[in-house]
Amino acid sequence: MRIIKGFSLLLVLILLPVMLFASGDKEEGSSAIVSQDWIQVDENWNVNYEFKGSEIEFTLTAPTTGWVGIGFNPSSRMKDADFVVGYVKDGTLFVQDSYGVKSTSIDSDTSIGGTDNVRGISGTENNGITTIVFALPLDSNDIYDKTFVQGDSYKVLLAYGKDSDDNFDSKHRKRDSMDAVLK
Ligand code: HEM
Q1: Residue 182 CB-half CA count within 13 A
Q2: Which of 7, 59, 116, 166 is 20 to 30 Å from 128 at the Cα level?
Q3: Which residue's CA lies nearest to atom 12 of ligand 1?
Q4: CA distances (Å), 168 to each of 36, 38, 177, in order?
Q5: 170 C-alpha vs ligand 1 centroid, how far in Å?
Q6: What pTM was estimated for this model as a whole?
Q7: CA-nearest residue, atom 38 of ligand 1
Q8: Band of the pLDDT at 4, cuts 50, 70, 90?
Q9: Domains of the chain
Q10: Whose CA is nearest to atom 35 of ligand 1?
Q11: Spatial separation of the C-alpha atoms in residues 65 and 127, rounded to whole Å
Q12: What is the pLDDT, as a whole number, of residue 26?
């Protein structure tokens, strides 16, 4: 009996740190890797960011020729999150500052009385992979935007559309979410 108890204790002592370490920054169900200034969801699906003066600049990549998107801090599912959606068409970048109006739909900030505060920087589409670069103000003063504070934790939503979906409002082909401290 003593031996079994001792063995169980040993097992817990070995397994507990392994389980805690393995869960890391990942949200349940997500296999995303969250590191210093980088979130990697899957092959060719990632985002990196940099705090630059009064802005935060993002480079968002996903394996699609349709739209790519990111959202921050929903109250539940997609509702009340601050979104940016973008796509590249004929070499031109289109981006839209958006908001989670319902748990399952988003709208442009401008259509609900807010302002468009995303600054599109560049966009490319190569071998079925889209990369968009854009900047958001750390504090836009728009009620439909979140403020970005270095060192704070955010729930980050990531998604992308089907290859044919060069638009801001068709549903995702894939989506994921994770918690990340923006450093
Ligand atoms: C930047 C763009 C978007 C991102 C990052 C995003 C992300 C997400 C995430 C992470 C979820 C899961 C939420 C949860 O259950 O906890 C979700 C759910 C959902 N989203 Fe989006 N989304 C975006 C755009 C859209 C658009 C444009 C539509 C519809 C036209 C849409 C429709 C839905 C629906 C119906 C669900 C719930 C059912 C499901 O997951 O299939 N999303 N979205």
Answers
A1: 21
A2: 116
A3: 77
A4: 29, 24, 19
A5: 10
A6: 0.85
A7: 104
A8: low
A9: 30-181 (2.60.40.1210)
A10: 104
A11: 9
A12: 44
Determine contact, residues 8/163, Cβ cutoff 8 Å.
Answer: no
Is the distance from the beta carbon of residue 175 to the nearest atom of ligand 1 less than 6 Å? yes
pLDDT at 29: 75
Digit-coded pLDDT (tens) for 81-116 = 999 999 999 999 999 999 999 999 999 999 999 999
Residue type, 39: I
Nearest CA to ligand 1 atom 20: 104
SS3 assignment, position 22? helix
Position 64, amino acid: T
Best mutation site among 78, 156, 177 for ligand 1 pocket (most ligand atoms within 8 Å of CB): 78
Nearest CA to ligand 1 atom 27: 169
> What pLDDT score does 118 carry?
98
pLDDT, one tens digit per residue, over 27-60 is: 467 889 998 889 999 999 999 999 999 999 999 9
Q: Is the minimum distance from the CB of 102 to ligand 1 under 6 angstroms? A: no
Share of the chain above pLDDT 70, in %: 85
At residue 93, the pLDDT reads: 98
Sequence-distant (≥ 6) Cβ neighbours of residue 13 within 8 angstroms: none
The rounded distance, in Å, linking the Cα atoms of 158 and 39 is 10
User: Which residues are registered as beta bridge partners of 89?
Assistant: 92
CA angle 95, 165, 154 (to 5 degrees): 50
